[in-house]
């Protein structure tokens, strides 16, 4: 998976996590998302989508639960 091209290096992104048939939309910092993806690559028990919004609608979304766990290395 590559995020080169449109993925921002700062700010927030719209993240969709799928558990079975349920989708959960969150806002996550651009710093946390690569660490989340790295964790996901170890064991695929959920699906992640990075949504490229053209508006700032994602600012209304809740932040990713326990996001601070993905801020460090």
- Count of spatially separate domains: 1
* Largest sheet strand order: 2-1-3
Detail the poorly predicted runs.
Answer: none
- In one word, what is the shape? globular
Question: What is the count of DSSP helices, taking H or I runs of 4+ residues?
Answer: 1
Walkthrough of the structure:
The protein is α+β, with helices and mostly antiparallel strands and 73 residues long. It has one helix at 32-42; strands at residues 12-19, 22-29, 47-51. Strands 2-1-3 form a three-stranded antiparallel β-sheet, with helices on one face. Strand 1 (12-19) and strand 2 (22-29) form a beta hairpin. The longest helix has 11 residues, at 32-42. The radius of gyration is 12 Å and the shape is globular. The protein starts with 11 loop residues before the first strand and ends in a 22-residue tail after the last strand. The mean pLDDT is 81.
């Amino acid at each position: 998976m590559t995020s080169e091209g449109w993925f921002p290096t700062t700010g927030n992104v719209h993240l969709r996590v799928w558990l079975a048939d349920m989708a959960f939309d969150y806002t996550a910092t651009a710093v946390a998302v690569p660490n989340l993806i790295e964790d996901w690559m170890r064991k695929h028990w959920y699906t992640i989508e990075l949504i490229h919004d053209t508006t700032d609608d994602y600012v209304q979304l809740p932040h990713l639960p326990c996001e601070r766990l993905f801020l460090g290395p």
